[in-house]
Fold each of these.
Amino acid sequence: MDKLVIEGGVSLSGEIVISGAKNAALPILCAALLTGETMTFSNLPRLKDVTTLLDLLAQMGVRVAPEGERRVSLNADGLNNPSALYDLVRTMRASILVLGPLLARCGEARVSLPGGCAIGARPVDQHIKGLQAMGAEIRVEQGYIHAKAKRLRGARVCTDMVTVTGTENLIMAASLAEGETIIENAAREPEVADLANCLARMGARISGAGTDVIRVQGVERLSGAEYAIMPDRIETGTYLCAAAATGGKVRLSNTSAAYLDAIIDKLMDAGCEFDLARDAITLQAPARLKSVSLRTAPYPAFPTDMQAQFMAINCVADGVATIRETIFENRFMHVAELQRLGADIQIEGNNAIVRGVAGLQGANVMATDLRASASLVVAALAARGETRIDRIYHLDRGYENMAEKLSALGAKARRI
Ligand code: UD1
């Protein structure tokens, strides 16, 4: 199994290019199921999760034609197998995003339940509830969701909690439904708006994406389109943390500060300085960071996907920070690993109290989930000596060429 070996203590400096957003690419690729015409996507990140989804779409009868490294054309004209089997779905929860489009386009879908996940129970009851409100008949049997609907009907849906993929599934389903769907308590994440922009290019009639009430006027059919995926704000935030933790100065291009307010504000509180251009962000870190407390919540508040990386920078900051996780019930698995590097962290329920220490020391650690792995990378870069991070297949799900990008910033990082 591949490991990432990092010799810490080097201040990061230089420039790297940020990839397209994983969490936008996944729903947007699923949108190709909604039309028989060709969709062409660019700025596609080269990630394991993207390959998994393309394999899943191919199994359904979608023609997948890569066009170079970051472009792919999909054609779902021959879509003949509206099902997503457990083997692929269990490796990636976001596979649930095929449910809404399959049902809307084929009138039926059979999708495996994503099952348990390391960071929490993560049920999909809201996806099901929304589709039922639109007239779908849904049975859950032997670990599969069986959904049927001749044609979905527009409905008013208010989700019990803010769910990102739930909102995305419902928008896609509603695009081909008869009449108007109103989604209340919708997720406001920029990736939801990116999906809506792509659907609009295909001829969907959607308003309010990016707010908590989204209205979709269903249309009879959608057409093919070209679409460029937005930059990855979580990858951006992760490299900002890596630079901050090492007292570095980096420029990240092909990205935008537009969706990073909560992250940039916290890094400024920690003492970092920024130069923001239209499509690039430059960060200059102080010699020692100040601790920053935070609480995760749906966008535009602080993202849960950046919680672990901020935990890592607080480990080496001056002061005491409280980090409160409100989205997932089991998202502190990085704590035990950070402690192996010498971090001083105490857990009280869904709060972590982090006391900054003068320095971390390298050790062997284990990646437990995608963003937890990213926090170990940030901490390892700041630590003295060598850290070996095991199970980095988690990192490959969401970070393109991480070892190469870190090396380009001067880090001593290699994959073995
Ligand atoms: C998406 C992101 C993930 C991010 C998360 C929260 C993608 C592919 N993934 O995941 O990176 O960490 O948003 O920002 O975009 N819930 C239910 N029932 C449901 C749906 C959700 O109880 O039917 C709960 C979940 O267990 C969780 C909370 O709602 O506690 C938010 O989950 P949700 O926004 O759905 O996360 P994902 O869309 O899976």
Amino acid sequence: MMVENVVGRFALPLGIGANFLIDGRDYLIPMAVEEPSVVAGASSAALLARAGGGFTTGSTEPVMIAQIQLLDVADASQAKRAILASQEKILACANTSPSLSQLGGGPQGIEVRCLPDTETGPMLIVHLIIDCRDAMGANAANTAAEAAAPLIEQISGGRAGLRILSNLSDRRRAWAEVEIPAGAFDSDDYSGRRVIRGIAEANAFAVADPYRAATHNKGIFNGVDAVLLATGNDWRAVEAGAHAWAARDGQYRALTDWHVRGCGDFETLYGRLELPLAVGTVGGATRSHASAQIALKILGLEVDGEDRLSTENGGSAGDAGAIADRRGARRLGEVVAAVGLAQNLAALRALATTGIQKGHMRLHARQVAVAAGAVGEAVERIAGQLIAEGSIRVARAKELLLK
Ligand code: MEV
């Protein structure tokens, strides 16, 4: 059983994002989401991205931060020096998982930060930097923080308060990039050059304005969360980290960068998304939820047999072959970044042209037609009629069905 006081299950649709070409490899993307248009949007943007050779991605090592809050420290500078001088001893004490360290993971370093002026007085904050390999790492980080706290108290002469991971996992980031020729955006109603300019302007709006940035980033998370949910990952943790990252310079901004490159017939749209992505392919719900296992299988990232904290995390940034060959958590993060970028592209493209309601209305009309009892080819016909009449109601759909 995964949680307490269970009275039932709450199922979501599981869709497949299509057309994804990531680092030269094709992917089918499992997406668990209740919102219409998300899977379709990601798939159509991924098709556009193919015109530019698909997405390229990368990621940092899978390191998390565990925080230990130290209070009542008499001399902060002296305590900081003493803690840093005892780094090896503290790391050994925090090294609670032999299997993780066997695979090259485990505690790697220490940082000490001083918060001289909080509401309740000064605090010293110790960060344990922990390589979690293919685990999301919440358990590894929390266990390490709790194990090392008594020694840190002893060394600093302080009192340990909180011992918990930070969800601002800014050392554990993934990114995706894409560059698409303007011509790929040409349609009967809009020239591609006009569309990509509109997308760059939309991005600039979200970089400058937190009100727009929140909506812009929400659109990114339509895709990101759908994959996280499908693969049994903690999407609240990723959201919290990414939103904090989006405000890292003091103002909340877009997580993406989109701009026009080149000129004339050679214009392209360049896009990039980078965000903290603490995800796992072992442990937690990734392992205990049967559908999450299937989702990882669909992605080609499944873990066979017993929990495995893979050593297959290698591949330097820029080495597309090695990156595409990765399995495990880093690869999942990179794929998720590509989906987030695609989702954002789909939204900005619609917003910069016809607006999003047109597409939404068609889906809504289809749902209404189905709710009225339409099946097969009648669904499209009745949805089309409802849209033409400008009245999307089940009662009218029923009348049309009778006719
Ligand atoms: C709706 O779920 C997401 C959008 O609002 C995102 C955006 O505005 O960029 C369409």
